[in-house]
């Protein structure tokens, strides 16, 4: 009796899935750089961010630089600054504390505050006779599922940020994305 | 320093909290009775009549002779200004208001007209109110409403005395890149312009929920029943004073956007949409009053921009608000002798 085409297709897909698992596992088991407890990275990135409230809209697209400390390839401490232009021009300061997966494929997540300082579109509201002029702050979470490292280089792509802030009074929604970040171990 | 004051100093210095460090906005020298006397003179029937007359003038007029400019813009053959310009001259003559003309012949002929009501105590300072009188098709809302409002101010304001000079200007060829307003900023000394009000489409209103299309990043009301005040950071304080003035007098409904700097950023170029552009670029405090014609019903620059689609009561409210703004910033003194 001949095997059906359906079972042949299923065998092909099982083979493909097994191949993928082997490749990902190999990436995870790739040789690491010398095992240091604390590693420092310097980075540059392209990013976009917006903070939206009833009283103002700040943000835009641009880029910046940053620094990162990784403890035992697991815990992360990050600091970055960016210049963004879109709805005005702002400087962004971001601090993050989080964790990453050790290995060549090292997705990460971190939380922390962000500040946007500069000019944006303002609106007159019942609570704000003049648009707020101070920094716009938010607190949120960043996900970095597309994050890889090899030897002393780290690459991150499409890492979204979502946070909440306030113009005191009034709440604000902060959204952002790191489009591409390249980091080098120091 | 008390502990409360030192805490505020530390926090504001760190910039962690958006504390307002500027002086509170007030209406210094606001004369409520004087302002009311001005706004009460605005007559709805006259404004409505003028809108209809201006609309008919545009519909009957021949299109402008635009040469090669027509090739780049398919709408231009429907743009007119000659007959309306003549109508304005006749009206100013009837009102016995001497006017000044600014003329440019190339690449497209344009003429600005403006009238000065000299100030009594600070005549060198100018409060300018402007509206463009060229229009596509009949241009009922854009901008027969602005011109009609300005004509009504030309009828009413000479009956009063103001501290500062009030200048009423009819700009040409706004629809071809704010050419008339640009010519004005090139030929007139702008240093003593205290504030400029640009009137551009004042008569479209709808109160249904969702009648105002949403615009990303702009939290304006969902109903199209407000007058948009477009300001920039150079005139933010005056925009706040306009809001206070309106809250006090309750003349119309406002929504104010304050653009950063001169508004020339990628996400704010939508605010560079009228005769305020050359003034913003020249750093002159300028606000634009508009009913967002680009977004409400999409009649702008089409044959559907007709008087029947306007709300006369809304137009009158906005004209009265403009009159109140002029009375405040020009400093209404008393009735003219």
Q: Please indicate the percent range of residues of chain A in DSSP E strands (runs of 2 or more).
A: over 45%
Q: Could you report the average pLDDT of chain B, rounded to the nearest whole number?
A: 90
Number of helices of chain B: 10
Average pLDDT number of chain A: 89
What letter string, H or E per element, gives the SSE order of chain A?
HEEEEEEEEE
Helix percentage of chain B? 25-40%
Strand order of the largest sheet of chain A: 1-2-3-4-6-8-9
Compute the CA-based radius of gyration of chain A: 21 Å
C-alpha geometry of chain B: globular
Strand content of chain B: 15-25%
Helix-strand topology string of chain B: HHHHEHEEEEHEEHEEHEHEHE
* Largest sheet entry of chain B: 8 strands, mixed
Note poorly predicted spans of chain A: 30-34
Question: How would you briefly describe this protein structure?
Answer:
The complex is a heterodimer of chains A (186) and B (337). By secondary structure, chain A is mostly beta strands. Chain A has one helix at 5-28; strands at residues 38-53, 56-71, 75-100, 108-119, 121-123, 136-144, 146-150, 153-166, 171-185.
What labels would you give this structure?
heterodimer, A: 186 residues, mainly beta, seven-stranded antiparallel barrel, 1 helix, B: 337 residues, alpha/beta, eight-stranded mixed β-sheet, two-stranded antiparallel ribbon, 12 strands, 36% helix, 20% strand, disordered N terminus
